[in-house]
């Protein structure tokens, strides 16, 4: 996101407010005008979630062709009405979850975007209509999207694997420590440790401890595996 804002500033085309006056939210305008795809990063901000929910509902009620909708959520965005109640009714909509720190952004067809960083005062964000800059933002979005976890999978794993016990075991598996060493470091019996490992392996859908460590890294379930891309 920082790279995108820098690119936009260099091009000197940071909004369309000077070109056209509109009382309608830019989010409503972009979602309503999408032809192929809408992508958004959700930080968990209630106002942002409400605005996107309104735009998706309005587009759905208007009929017309369906577009692909991708929502990349921070964990705290999962409790918003958008994710809980609106998304299940939106056709061709996919939600993924990431721990990567996200600025708020909405992208449309690789042609335009609305971006807003938490520290910015403009609640409507800045509209970007430079296609090259919009495509750059979509590429950054795609990098995080590929490493994010599907919503259903995240919720299935969230219970056990995000506990302190689960996190510590995942770290031991990722580090390749033997069961005996890991159990001793965690101050639990070898039998108890192995029982927890078996349950975690089942949750991750893997057949070996090595695979469990790799899968945990792929799903960004380990703190050291997170990264800040946007």
Automatic annotation (TrEMBL):
Region (Disordered): 1-27
Residue ranges annotated for the HTH luxR-type domain, each copy included: 158-216
UniProt cross-references to InterPro entries, sorted A to Z: Sig_transdc_resp-reg_C-effctor (IPR016032), Tscrpt_reg_LuxR_C (IPR000792), WH-like_DNA-bd_sf (IPR036388)
Alphabetized Gene3D superfamilies for the sequence: Winged helix-like DNA-binding domain superfamily/Winged helix DNA-binding domain
Compositionally skewed regions (Basic and acidic residues) per UniProt: 11-23
Signal peptide extent: none
Protein name according to UniProt: HTH luxR-type domain-containing protein
